[in-house]
Amino acid sequence: MKRLFVSALALFGVLTVVAQPQMSYEEAEAKANEYIAKLTLDEKLAMTQGHNRFFFPGVPEKGMPYIYTTDASMGVKNKQKLHREGEIILAERTTQFPAFIMMAATFNPQIAYDYGHAVGEEARMAGAGVILGPGMNIYRNSQCGRNFEYVGEDPYLAARLMENYITGMQSTGTLACAKHFLGNQTEFYRRRSNSIIDERALMEIYTPAFKAAIDAGVATVMTAYNQLNGEWTGESKYVITDLLRGTLGFKGMVMSDWNSIYDWKNVILSGQNLDMPGEPAHYIKKTPRDLVAEGIVTEKDIENMIRPTIATCIRWGLYDRYLSGQQYKPELEAKLPDHLEVSYRTAAEGAVLLKNNGILPLATDRKVLVIGRRWIKDVPHGGGAARVTGYDHIPLQQVMTETFGQGVSFVSEATAEQIKAADVVLCVTGTYDSESTERPFAMEKRDEQQVRLAVENNANTIVLVHSGSGIDMSAWADKCAALLYGWYPGQNGMLALRDILIGKVNPSGKLPMTIERSFADSPAVNSVPVGFNLAKAKGNPNEKAFHPWTYDVHYDESVLVGYRWYEKKGIKPLFPFGYGLSYTTFELANAKILSKGKVKTLTDEKPLRVAIEVRNIGRVAGSEVVQLYVAEKNPTVLRPVKELKAFQKVSLAAGEKQVVVFEVDKSMLAFWCDKSHAWTANAGEYTISIGTSSANIVAELPIQVL
Cα 482 from chain centroid? Predict the structure, then answer.
């Protein structure tokens, strides 16, 4: 196979500004050696660990300043707690953007680019050299508290969005950090979990987004808290040297997640470059200094460890920027209004309309009772490292009052009588998700009871869900008049959701993951060990490998993640991957392969072009996501029923039509062979399926592969 991953540049033309480091990595390495030659052993040892919690280490007097990194997922954290000085304030204001999973629901690579570019500009404004993101762990487990930081269940979708996000960010001079490498799909005692994943699943499901990030030029990678097949990822030679650097081709700098390494010998020899945050850990028996003194590792090993950190800072001009005092760009504060527009657009395109019996869009003269014990007076958000404060928050209560005036009222927990008396009920519900915790698939009892009370007592109940992943809606999804998934929409996202409710914006979001009917249907059902309560699923920083136990998370489904699992097992989900409604209607027709002859043949040298006509047959303008899936008719190994391999978001006026053309090459049909340890595509019959979700296929085209 000559080409393993299809570039988004070829597919979408979105990567308009490619990240431009100042020199090649090889040139930067040579310069790094000049710096290393001037360092004492003590200085070299200091370069193995982070400085003051959020800084890359440095030796300022020798031209290597400390480089500031900042947490980010929904934007730039403008405040961080340090080891000694208390707190660092980067900027007075930074934007709280919608959650990553909401960005994924846009199915729009241009939004991913714009989002990354905006966050990169705010990091430059605030003086941060490195953003500790994006997170790109595949959504396997709907109970994972960090799903809102990630981009869904499909590796192809994740790859296309992440390469654009990273390119947008790094075009500003801010370095991105792809995380968490690898197998971090659970937050239940995350420092004790051992993800057991087979080679095919690693290559087909869990690494494509990282590969896309590497091909897009990502500067840094962060390892994960968990073990992968029995080794801590932050000190595993297989994970860092063999897989990340070898198979995937990464040349940049690798850092650990905070407080996630335990054996310094393994760390130094694994290919790891930097232990973060660098604070002393009482449970680590021997330090790098001890190991060098005892001859267990050499000074040369230390030099090899720190070289990529120094080379990365040189290559991207971080040392020059900080030494010249140019790390801060306060003039970029003038771009904040532009960033708010990106935030609004992400929320507007990322909200997913899951049900509508015709009640939406809502006329502004309707009388609306808004109920819900959270997210009415506050802007919905997740917690942990991804939590960004934002500024000038616009909550739902404000936008509904501005829109409906005296016709809207608010009750935290309504009675049946209040619900029955209402013209329309807007029931706001959901979950608060955060790293270090898993939360049950079911909502909290009080929230579930309120939704059920609403749908049972008023047929005009609209449910607005704020969550970072799927929740159990089986008891009431078919009873509500409309269901809108609003995720965590950012500081001004309630404006976008209001505009969808009243029809000013036509919803176009699609689910980037499957929502199951019951968590018992999920392949991740046995992720939490028997006998443990999710309420105790904490990621305590003091958890360590030397505690009495670790536990295994068996990825027995292998490559059957998300819709692949449900389709193969014949389990009907509540809402399928790629699903989302509109206020207009689209018709897909006349699918065909644009090549001569009756037999449509695909070879290494000859890709196929596939076309389908999309027409807006409704009365309002809207956008549809056309999705292309492929399937092997007679596979020789376990393969999904079908796999997403291309998509395109099309915006059409009422009555307008457009022909969407996809290029299908042989790499899109390949699977990872765990015998040859390479990608391969069997000769034989395949089917190209085109539709508007994984469950709504409108055309199937047979092809032959030689």
Answer: 27
